[in-house]
Amino acid sequence: xxxxxxxxxxxxxxxxxxxxxxxxxxxxxxxxxxxxxxxxxxxxxxxxxxxxxxxxxxxxxxxxxxxxxxxxxxxxxxxxxxxxxxxxxxxxxxxxxxxxxxxxxxxxxxxxxxxxxxxxxxxxxxxxxxxxxxxxxxxxxxxxxxxxxxxxxxxxxxxxxxxxxxxxxxxxxxxxxxxxxxxxxxxxxxxxxxxxxxxxxxxxxxxxxxxxxxxxxxxxxxxxxxxxxxxxxxxxxxxxxxxxxxxxxxxxxxxxxxxxxxxxxxxxxxxxxxxxxxxxxxxxxxxxxxxxxxxxxxxxxxxxxxxxxxxxxxxxxxxxxxxxxxxxxxxxxxxxxxxxxxxxxxxxxxxxxxxxxxxxxxxxxxxxxxxxxxxxxxxxxxxxxxxxxxxxxxxxxxxxxxxxxxxxxxxxxxxxxxxxxxxxxxxxxxxxxxxxxxxxxxxxxxxxxxxxxxxxxxxxxxxxxxxxxxxxxxxxxxxxxxxxxxxxxxxxxxxxxxxxxxxxxxxxxxxxxxxxxxxxxxxxxxxxxxxxxxxxxxxxxxxxxxxxxxxxxxxxxxxxxxxxxxxxxxxxxxxxxxxxxxxxxxxxxxxxxxxxxxxxxxxxxxxxxxxxxxxxxxxxxxxxxxxxxxxxxxxxxxxxxxxxxxxxxxxxxxxxxxxxxxx
Length: 663
Prior knowledge:
Signal peptide: 1-25
Membrane topology: Single-pass type I membrane protein
Organism: Salix suchowensis
Domain Protein kinase: 475-663
Transmembrane segments: 387-410
Number of helices: 15
Helix content: 25-40%
């Protein structure tokens, strides 16, 4: 049957740019503009295939060059040269180059990386009134960032890394209404940061490392969407900045901070990377940082942190790297840092009772603490008793917090349904209109906020139909896993030996290519440690009008069954101890959090049940059922659950069953 179907359909498994541009015929003037750009750039190797007969809109993109067209006009252009490309010849004119670029007036995405561009960034950049993403990193651009950039009202991503821009960050930067990414790393910028940064309500990524900034950081606590803040290698300080609590990555290393850490740091529950190394932070080290629920990387080396560490301190299960070196800490390393060989722990040049020769005597840390004005605790026995009592109380509170975390996560889904109850149409419009295609396409700067959760997965890619057929043995009945409201599901094995789950979905002809690709862009971001992650997709097209007839969504295969089967189903292999139940509860909460806040737009109305949680070979909990707008739109309804057909709304009490079932 599969062989016969090939004669009636054409398989075109291609990437996003080609799908969008497949039917466009480029204006001849814009084709000539591209050839002039090739000449001005001195015929770089990345553009060696361009000539007068090139069909720019229908050329398959690669890692170096991508041209995307829409309605006979170029809307995206990515040109990435070789790393270390030298300056263009002396006869190169940056002004003439941008005069030529203006011949592409509909550009929304412009990437010019490692091309040897030199000179000041021209004010003509303001003529690209529709520009959403500008990336001119790894060139030799200098002088101040031109004020004309402030007129780009639709600019969402500004990446000027690895150039020679100088001067201060201009005050007008806060007037860009939808800016979500600002990356100015590795330049010669100086001075203090403007207070107007706090006006960037949509800012998610702020990267200013390796410059010459100094002074205090403005109040950033109003930036409630900020997830990545990198200020490494400047002269900021002395006070710790005021920040929001949704940070995923915070890097303040190699600056001049010398205060103690505020208590708010221990409430950064989404924080995965914290680097405070090479400063002069003082005061007690907050040991609760070890147990932040999401933390994987913790570096506080080369500071003046004091305090006694305790063996019974708890640690996050995801913690992979800890560096406590060159501080003034005493006591003993927590056992949770030592018993896991997968954790890399550095602790030299403290006063810890480890038996290692690379520790100072305890008197050294006491004298150094006095030198920086930190008085040691006098009543050691009482202090130790209080600390141990605090740890016990903290452990009890932590257990309650875990239950509360699951309750709040599932309650959030219910509250959204009660207040907004988004339907399929709303979600589809949000994907296509509220967040333009390629909004977060600059993977090195934006997608890192989502990739932080995707560990050990191959890159998301397009599969060919031959791969899908080979993996399922031509959709053999032995590979068939079931059929439900979200299509047929098959188990497959790829050439590399890895197993996958393949969902086959027949689409209505009402799907436009643009909307479909917006959905695929969202699906490609569903990659997280606690989700059954998407690995790729494949399209089939109708022969008559080239609209999509079937889509195959490829997900990772999770072999250990459902969480319910381990907890209440009497799993044949082993019991499910409390430590695993707690880890599963935290994992589910992290998965829900990622669906809500880790991608744009978020995925809601998931009606999560304990049967929707699977366990992998390491007994890591993964959410297998979440509301994909593509699947919901195809059915004309909001789809919940996995293969149970029509969905049911779960009451608040039913949602609490998820927590009750785990514990």
